[in-house]
Amino acid sequence: MKKVVDWVTVKFLIVGVINTLVGTSVMFLCYNILHTGYWAASALNYIIGSIVSYFLNKYFTFKSGRKSVREVLCFVLNITVCYGLSYGVAKPCVHYVLQGYSVAVRDNAAMFAGMCLFVVLNYFGQRFVVFRQEDR
């Protein structure tokens, strides 16, 4: 059985910190300053963050040398599914738990919760599906 936590996991987390700084800055700036709304702000986070994530994880974390349209499509599908699940679950759950708070507080908390859930789902998707290597 493959180890789930190893050096690859550490590298994924390092890339995640970089990606999170970029994407989260975009998301909270768009929502709180540009007033783009919950879905637009979180989507922009993942569009921009995913570009950064793809290249850093492909070459640094998983060292994938493949030049494959399938790999890119798989990555996009993984990000899309993880995003939809994470933010689709986070918003109603957080809004329910924080019913007495303002919409802005609930949306910001939901974006944070969605981000946390996304990291976990995305790690497994990238490691075991998108950049899977048989010899690892």
Order of helical and strand elements: HHHH
User: What structural class do you assign from the helix and strand content?
Assistant: mainly alpha
Instruction: State the helical fraction.
Output: over 70%
Low-confidence stretches: none
Q: Give the overall shape.
A: elongated
Distance between the termini: 10 Å
User: Which whole number gives the mean pLDDT?
Assistant: 90
From the alpha carbons, calculate the radius of gyration and give it in angstroms: 16 Å
Number of beta strands: 0
How many strands, which pairing sense, and closed or not: the largest β-sheet?
A: none
Structural overview:
There is one protein chain. This protein is mainly alpha-helical and 136 residues long. The protein has four helices and no strands. It has helices at residues 7-32, 38-61, 69-97, 103-130. The chain is elongated, with a radius of gyration of 16 Å. The mean pLDDT is 90.
